[in-house]
Amino acid sequence: MSAPGKPPLRVGLAGLGAVGLEVARRLIAGVPGLTLAAVAVRDADKARRALPQLGAVAFKPATALADDCDVVVECLPPALFRAVAISAIDKGRIFMPLSVAQLLEHWDLVERAKAKGARILPPTGALLGLDAVRAAAEGEIRSIKMITRKPPAGLDGAPYLLEHNISVANLKAPLKVFDGTAREGARGFPTNVNVAAALSLAGIGPDRTQLEIWADPALTRNTHRIEVDADVARFFMTIEGVPSENPRTGRIVPLSTVAALRALVSELKVGT
């Protein structure tokens, strides 16, 4: 929380899709110590219709958010990731990417952040147990596996499916569409399994983290199961997330983002 007389942390949102819109709504409603200072959208009129409370919030190009914002939250298509990331990092800001899979593809940004005094803080998103994984990683983790099961609509159009001519339309039974590393999965499903990238970064890296992806027509929720074998513990965790208006993203993602933002200014932060 901001100390008396200390200005609130200024947040800039790059994108007002299913996630960004809900984050904006909650920031405008009020989170102590935070203020929504600016947003970047393709259609300002559409954004104002969707959220009239935007009021005096500034509209800026995504790469200009870092000019006046302390934190830049990225909620954009993968193709726009790097430019927004560089604009925030080069100004020494806090960069909060939701497209975590893109971070694996642009790993030089981590060294760039170190050189510029910036921080890259991906929120937990639609996953659970990253605190336990991070704690176990301080010791020895022998293996991590994640099994993702989604309704077919949550995977439709992924580059990996198109490249391998895999159809998830009209499925009558679960279909395993991918089995490999988190790095390969993040590359093939850049908007579908950001959770796998986050898990790999919290644990043993994208090349040792194993990932299975299933299209399951019987499901209505995005389901992720994590299996961790470490020297200090063995644990298994499952989360069933309700999809948002965008079936690739769960409704918990914007709430996770707000929680991550709140942790930047709160006088009490629970968890690692």
Explained architecture:
The protein is of the alpha/beta class and 272 residues long. It has two domains: 9-126 and 252-263, 3-Layer(aba) Sandwich (Rossmann fold), CATH 3.40.50; 130-241, Dihydrodipicolinate Reductase, domain 2 (2-Layer Sandwich), CATH 3.30.360. The chain has ten helices and eleven strands. Strand 10 (222-230) and strand 11 (234-241) form a beta hairpin. The longest helix has 12 residues, at 18-29. The protein is globular and about 55 Å long. The protein starts with 8 loop residues before the first strand and ends in a 9-residue tail after the last helix.
Layout of SSEs?
Layout: E1 9-14, H1 18-29, E2 34-40, H2 44-50, E3 58-59, E4 71-74, H3 81-89, E5 94-97, H4 100-105, H5 108-116, E6 119-120, H6 130-137, E7 141-150, H7 159-163, E8 175-181, H8 182-188, H9 194-202, E9 209-215, E10 222-230, E11 234-241, H10 252-263
Parallel strand pairs: 1-2, 1-4, 2-3, 4-5, 5-6, 7-9
Antiparallel strand pairs: 7-10, 8-9, 10-11
Write down how many β-strands occur, each being a DSSP E stretch of 2 or more residues. Answer: 11
Major β-sheet, in short?
A: 6 strands, parallel
The H-and-E topology, N to C, reads as EHEHEEHEHHEHEHEHHEEEH
**CATH architecture label name of the largest domain:** 3-Layer(aba) Sandwich
Strand order of the largest sheet: 3-2-1-4-5-6
Low-confidence stretches: none
**CATH topology heading of the largest domain:** Rossmann fold
Number of domains: 2
Helix coverage percent? 25-40%
Distance between the termini: 18 Å
Which assembly state applies to the chains in this document? single chain
